[in-house]
Amino acid sequence: NRGLLGYIWFALGAGLLALLTPCVFPMIPITVSVFTKREHDSHGKAIRDAVIFCLGIILTYTVLGLALALVAGPTGLNKLAANPWMNLFLTTLFVVFALNLFGMFEIRLPSSLLSKLDKQSQDSTLFATVLMGVTFTLTSFTCTTAFVGSVLIYATQGDWFWAVIGMAAFATAFAAPFFLFALFPR
Predict the structure, then answer these.
(1) Residue 55 CB: number of other CB atoms within 10 A?
(2) What is the rounded distance in angstroms from the CA atom of residue 23 to the CA atom of residue 94?
(3) Mean pLDDT over residues 26-41, rounded?
(4) 165 near 7, Cβ under 8 Å?
(5) Cα distance between residue 66 and residue 75, in whole Å
(6) Taking a C-beta distance cutoff of 8 angstroms, is the pair 148, 167 a contact?
(7) Residue ranges of the alpha helices (H) in the chain?
(8) C-alpha span between 8 and 165 (Å, rounded)
(9) Would you give the distance in Å from CA 172 to the centre of its chain?
(10) At what angle are helices 126-140 and 111-123 packed, to 10 degrees?
(11) Closest-CA residue to 135 (of 39, 34, 36, 47)
(12) Half-sphere exposure of 32 (CA within 13 A, CB side)
């Protein structure tokens, strides 16, 4: 009702507020530590990695969100995010990873897979950076459905313009701090 600019400002604000949710806020130090461990050959490579990471977040939210809206319908995403079994699964997954980080046990991948991933990460970090952005988006999706689910209702009603603008603005604000953290990890 307040026009396009008001809607964009609202989506940007929701994206910034989503950073404070319990699914997202703990990911901030993890993301910073990943970019801190990488040694960049140049400032240009740091900028490239930051842009790629943020584009992974923005494109995943926009494309995956719209695809899920078409498949799940207007209330499907909200039902998925409110599903106790989905939340129990995510809680269990995070607890297992936390216990692994605390050293209670070690999760080991097959050495052939590690060798392949290590070789690829040495050749180019683009794939790893995009994958990190996509993974971050997927792990934080349930905490952002209050806004995202509402916006995607537009898509299920055939009003693609408002859905795409809302998702893109939300994801851009959501990714902006991570761009700065990736750009200046220290």
Answers:
(1) 16
(2) 10
(3) 68
(4) yes
(5) 13
(6) yes
(7) 3-18, 27-37, 43-59, 65-72, 76-82, 84-101, 111-123, 126-140, 145-156, 160-183
(8) 7
(9) 11
(10) 110
(11) 34
(12) 12
Amino acid at 46: A
> How much is the average pLDDT of 24-35?
74
Structure tokens that stand for 8 in this block: 């964009």
* Nearest-angstrom CA–CA distance, 120 and 137: 22
pLDDT classification of 27: cutoffs 50, 70, 90 = confident
Contacts of 50 (CB under 8 A, 6+ apart): 35, 178, 179, 180, 182, 183
The token pair at 5 is 């600019």
Phi, psi (5° rounding) for residue 169? -65, -45
Region 130-139: mean pLDDT is 71
Query: In this structure, is the dihedral angle defined by the CA atoms of residues 46, 49, 54 and 57, taken in order, positive or negative?
Result: negative
Q: Which amino acid is at 145?
A: T
Burial class (CB in 10 A: 0-12, 13-18, 19+), 182: buried
What pLDDT was estimated at residue 9?
92
Written in H, E and C, the secondary structure of 82-123 is HCHHHHHHHHHHHHHHHHHHCCCCCCCCCHHHHHHHHHHHHH
Q: Which residue has the higher pLDDT, 125 or 135?
A: 135
Q: How many CB atoms lie within 10 A of CB 176?
A: 17
Query: Does residue 6 carry a pLDDT above 80?
Result: yes
Q: Which amino acid is at 63?
A: V
